[in-house]
Amino acid sequence: MEIGAQRRNSRLIKITLFSATFWASIPLLWILRDVARMIFAPVIYYDNGVFFTWLKNTSIFVGSALTISVVCCVTAGFVLAVLDVPFRRFLLFATLVTMLIPITAMAMPLYVMIDRIGLNDTLLGLILASSFFPFGAFLSYLYFTSVLPPDLVGMGRIDGLGDFGIYRHLGLPLSKSLISVVTFFCFVSLWNSYHLPRVILTEPSKSIMSIGIEVFYGQGTTLIALMMVIPSVLLYLASQKTIARGIFSGAVKE
Predict the structure, then answer these.
(1) Contacts (Cβ under 8 Å, ≥6 apart) of 174
(2) In a domain, 22, yes or no
(3) pLDDT tens-digit series, residues 85-98
């Protein structure tokens, strides 16, 4: 009796999960249907292949800003967690407050700063404006607070390691999971970036993919939705184990 009941429950669970998965995938199927209609549209060859220019600009923007953000976030988190820096509490408070401010509210101040240094309407200006990632810095601070206790840092100093030596020989080897987590969240933020590029970039030939395709197809295009989702999903599938290990690193130390 119990075995029969378990089998029925198992079938019911599988049917329920399959139905829920199918229902949740309907919007994606709808997007794929619309994309199939426009995949051979003249956007690829539109205006001498401007689509590939948007793709190149997006790759340069995301790759450069991602590298700067990850390096700065991991380094800043280590400094705030391990080193005795002045005004540390104020810096942590400022990081937390900045993290809570939506990017739409930060777009105009960042635009003014980029315009002051003469980098408005350039990829370099967009990269510099998009490279700050306070969430990654605060996450790095929490991570290093967990995996680098004062006793371990003290042992490193006894062995003759300075601040940079501790960062290189202790911090970086222990931060592989952290780098994966920060990279994933930062990539999603940059790849889905819309408001800041729209404010800073005005020349169509310098646009990134989301802005450029929107200009050609109009707002709400399903092609934008698909292109924004697929890279993030692929990145998560490729590094989901490392991301999960980094997220739960505070509960289970490596």
Answers:
(1) 147, 148, 254
(2) no
(3) 888 889 888 888 88
